[in-house]
Design goal:
The protein is an alpha+beta fold and 175 residues long. Helices cover 31% and strands 44% of the residues. The chain is built from four helices and eight strands; from the N terminus they run βαββαββαββαβ. The strands form two sheets. It has a four-stranded antiparallel β-sheet, covered by helices on one side. Strands 6-7-5-8 form a four-stranded antiparallel β-sheet, covered by helices on one side. Helix 1 packs antiparallel against helix 2. Residues 5-81, 92-175 form the ACT domain. It comes from Steroidobacter gossypii.
Amino acid sequence: MQFIVISALGSDRTGLVYDLTRVVLDCSGNIIDSRMSSFGSEFAMLLLVSGNWHTLAKLETELKKLSDSSGVTIGLRRTDQRPPRKDVVTYSVDVVCLDQPGIVHNLAGFFSARGIDIAELNTRSYAAAHTGAPMFSVQMVVHIPGKIHIAALREEFMDLCDQLNLDAILEPVKS
């Protein structure tokens, strides 16, 4: 089994997901993981696809054709399956606050400085329900090394959130 990461970026339109996934299916690929979202009037997609060497070679050719015919920018990169992490505890981080510059940067800096891997990160801007105030939310999944004392980490994280006026939760991911 081999793996390829596919990134696609193009003008948002109905049928784009269908077109990309049709090529994957026609080439006998299997979507292992994916993220898809609209950003303004653009659409972005990331896929991890598995298959044998022939499947991946065919995908490279067919996705180039789709890119040329549709105007969607498609990037491909062969990869290996990530080995399971044994020495970490997985936590979720949820943050809500008034929108302000630097939120993601400050959160990423906090975790990076402690050797904590950010496995997933999603953000969203929206208007508060009753006031219309500009709000920002962050959802993260982080892998905390087993050697880190969780209670001390939680206290440091909450101190940072207090300094930045962020409402946050740091809790273990329940499987």
